[in-house]
Amino acid sequence: MDSDRVRKLEARCIEEQPPACMATCPLHVDMRAILEKVKKGDFSGAFALYARMVPFPGIVGHICDHPCEATCRRQEAGGAIRIAAVERALVEESYATLRRTAQRQSKPKRVAVVGAGLAGLTAAFDLAMKGHRITVLEADAHPLERLYHDYDEDILPRSVIAAEIGALQTLGVEIRVRSRVAGGPGPLGLDTLIDDFDAVLLALGPGVARNFSSTVRLTDNGRIDIDPNSRATSHPKVFGGGFHGALGEVYSPIGSIRDGRRAAGSIDRFLQGASLTAKRDDADGEASCLYVNTAAQEAVPPVEPVDTAAGYTLEEAKAEAARCFPCHCQECVKACVFLAHYKTYPKRAVREIHNNLSIIMGNRKANRMIDSCSLCGLCETVCPTDLAMGDVCLEARREMVDSGHMPASHHDFALRDMEDSRSARAAFARHEPGRERSARVFFPGCQLTASAPGHVERVYAHLRDRLEGGVGLMVDCCGAPAHWSGRTALHTEVVDHLRQTWKEMGEPEIVTACATCLTMLRTHLSEAPVRSLWPLLAEIGWPEGTDARAAGKTLAIHDPCTGRHEREVHVAVRDLAARLGASVREISSAELTTCCGFGGLVSFANPDVANATVDARAAERPEDYLTYCAMCRDNFARRGKRSAHLLDLAFPPEDGADPAARPDPGFSGRRDNRARLKIRLLRNLWGEDMSDPESVWNVHIPDDVRADMERKLILVDEVTAVIADAETTGRKLKDRKTGHLIATLRSGPVTTWVEYENTETGALVHKAYGHRMNVEAKS
Amino acid sequence: MSVPVPPEVPVPDTDDLICARCDVPLRMGKVQASYMGQTFPVELPVCPSCGFVYVSEDLAAGRMLKVEQALEDK
């Protein structure tokens, strides 16, 4: 993942885009953060954020023309936040806490500011804060003269103006009133100022400026020709600020402040000999592209102040601030347990993943995070820019495997399970009994064979019964675990083997019962025609006698995440359930389904995230769940959510047991089921005998120990092997107090320990555990 | 929803353990623990006669697991 690609991926995530209010504000005040603090009653914290951006918070808090409110996204749900009114309450509460200290400059420069309007004084403030010496020359009798005319005392108290001017003077700004600057030379001439000061700002206010035409270039309408972005004029030492730009410009206090700030930024750059334009971040923001799902918000009208003239009380300001959503995208985070678990969002996660992959020395702290994504595709489905975290995580896994940095323990068990499902114990392919050709081949997938082998036999019998041209059977694994774990070479090996088998079968159409197999085979065995079992079943119908077998049952349907875009399958499955008489409710739309926790092998790399994922899904509806993925069904069952596979409804247990209460067979049970299915099918359909590998050791494992072993990924076969070894060799410990025996055996990368006792009927297992580290006594 | 809870089996006291084959109590001894090409000397209960090393579940699921994971994330 090169840094160019990382940047492109990061750019796709819009979560860090500014909210609309901030993008619109000429000073880019972070109102979202401020309202968050006001909401919590933290007025001093909110005011500190406000005063960091606003030069004269007292004044602006009373008269800001608040362009932010016009773009506030709350207007789509009840009305824009009354930001200006909240600001007023905020500054009235906290202005007294304002403390400002200017930087120290070892060689301060002298700057003359002509005009004591908001633009000029903002520039004076910004440059004074940088440590420069500022002299403001004002023709009128007062600084900020205009404010006295434009605003009544009850809108903008005069005491506020006086306090702001006083604060500015405290910073060392000298303000000379009744000092009209003229053009050319002379004591208050522009040319003299240019000689006496390091830079000059003409913040003149409206009107023509023909007096200065001998020094700076004017526009056709007699105003100073100012570059709108840098505020530079034709004279390098002279800058222009304030309201004297294009004709038709509408006066805006906050706009004037923005102009003054931008001019001060340029003057500071000029004084340091830096470029006026390079890497400036104070340009007018474009409209924010932050996506906000306003449709999901309930409409709430603005808070009306009880006393309109006095404005909001603090309580009213808090209530109004609480109407701020606040604006965030986070569509994927809201939908994804994995991202929520890591308290991250794609832009940040992509960077963390890239950093993790780039580490030469030190800990790779994001390894487990990378392996905790279920690759379910929900994030890209809900993302406004279709950013797929699953693709990023999968790519990262492949790099980790290729560079030798994939933690072995994360996927080891799942890959060994895949190996078992592909081994001669479980996998095989045959033409339909008595036929030499297969027009189709049924590919049930390794999980249906493991979860409900009887269903595989029944469906296969039904397909043979209804379909012409020969229906072969191919019991194998599609290679998803290899793919999901980033083992590209192993996955290629699996697919090559499948291709070989498929060719030997005469290149039949593959009919699969598993959504993952469907996707995997379509993508990686693209030359083979592959289709889902369910639309085919909808065409040929259920076997006779299955009608209304699920009559009276109401279930909520969970679609597998790997088939979220398979519309034809979604329709077929619902139709098939209806034909069985079941009444089906939706949990979410099929496209927005979630993972059951198995996808991407999360349940092996991060059981906490996997369990949280399945639990969140299980809690969405109270009804029993209906699935058509064996793994989804077993995961719900494992976590105590009643759930039935569609085939459980069609072929309920003959003993009348409740199909939705079928327990999860567990990993050992799954392996047994696969092996026994092969033995049974070969014997019953093809007359072939396979030796049944019955263990000579009688091992009893109580249910609670078995569940604990499942959690620790320890198989019954492994426990049996430990006991067999101990009883054969005598290598074991004895606990004198309990009489329990303790034995161990290293098998592949794992050492398994078993605590047991021998009873008359065999070994009774009390506990099993394991570790990967190898220990040996020093000889 | 009910989720199974792990069984509660008391951890054996090392002093109570004897090697069944050699019929001698375990004693603390020097052991080499290795993983991913790294080797560490540790002290664990060992049969002084045949060298059978005992790793308790607490150790396997605690400190040992932490070291395994730390090495995997190097």
UniProtKB/TrEMBL annotation, chain A:
<dbReference type="Pfam" id="PF07992">
    <property type="entry name" value="Pyr_redox_2"/>
</dbReference>
<dbReference type="Pfam" id="PF02754">
    <property type="entry name" value="CCG"/>
</dbReference>
<dbReference type="GO" id="GO:0046872">
    <property type="term" value="F:metal ion binding"/>
</dbReference>
<keyword id="KW-0408">Iron</keyword>
<feature type="domain" description="4Fe-4S ferredoxin-type">
    <location>
        <begin position="364"/>
        <end position="392"/>
    </location>
</feature>
<dbReference type="InterPro" id="IPR004017">
    <property type="entry name" value="Cys_rich_dom"/>
</dbReference>
<keyword id="KW-0479">Metal-binding</keyword>
<dbReference type="GO" id="GO:0005886">
    <property type="term" value="C:plasma membrane"/>
</dbReference>
<dbReference type="InterPro" id="IPR017896">
    <property type="entry name" value="4Fe4S_Fe-S-bd"/>
</dbReference>
<dbReference type="GO" id="GO:0016491">
    <property type="term" value="F:oxidoreductase activity"/>
</dbReference>
<dbReference type="InterPro" id="IPR023753">
    <property type="entry name" value="FAD/NAD-binding_dom"/>
</dbReference>
<keyword id="KW-0411">Iron-sulfur</keyword>
<protein>
    <submittedName>
        <fullName>Aldehyde dehydrogenase iron-sulfur subunit</fullName>
    </submittedName>
</protein>
<dbReference type="InterPro" id="IPR017900">
    <property type="entry name" value="4Fe4S_Fe_S_CS"/>
</dbReference>
<dbReference type="InterPro" id="IPR036188">
    <property type="entry name" value="FAD/NAD-bd_sf"/>
</dbReference>
<feature type="region of interest" description="Disordered">
    <location>
        <begin position="652"/>
        <end position="671"/>
    </location>
</feature>
<keyword id="KW-0560">Oxidoreductase</keyword>
<dbReference type="GO" id="GO:0051539">
    <property type="term" value="F:4 iron, 4 sulfur cluster binding"/>
</dbReference>
<dbReference type="Pfam" id="PF14691">
    <property type="entry name" value="Fer4_20"/>
</dbReference>
<dbReference type="InterPro" id="IPR051460">
    <property type="entry name" value="HdrC_iron-sulfur_subunit"/>
</dbReference>
<dbReference type="InterPro" id="IPR028261">
    <property type="entry name" value="DPD_II"/>
</dbReference>
<dbReference type="InterPro" id="IPR009051">
    <property type="entry name" value="Helical_ferredxn"/>
</dbReference>
From TrEMBL, chain B:
<protein>
    <recommendedName>
        <fullName>DUF7479 domain-containing protein</fullName>
    </recommendedName>
</protein>
<feature type="domain" description="DUF7479">
    <location>
        <begin position="16"/>
        <end position="74"/>
    </location>
</feature>
<dbReference type="InterPro" id="IPR054656">
    <property type="entry name" value="DVU_1557-like"/>
</dbReference>
<dbReference type="InterPro" id="IPR055902">
    <property type="entry name" value="DUF7479"/>
</dbReference>
<dbReference type="Pfam" id="PF24292">
    <property type="entry name" value="DUF7479"/>
</dbReference>
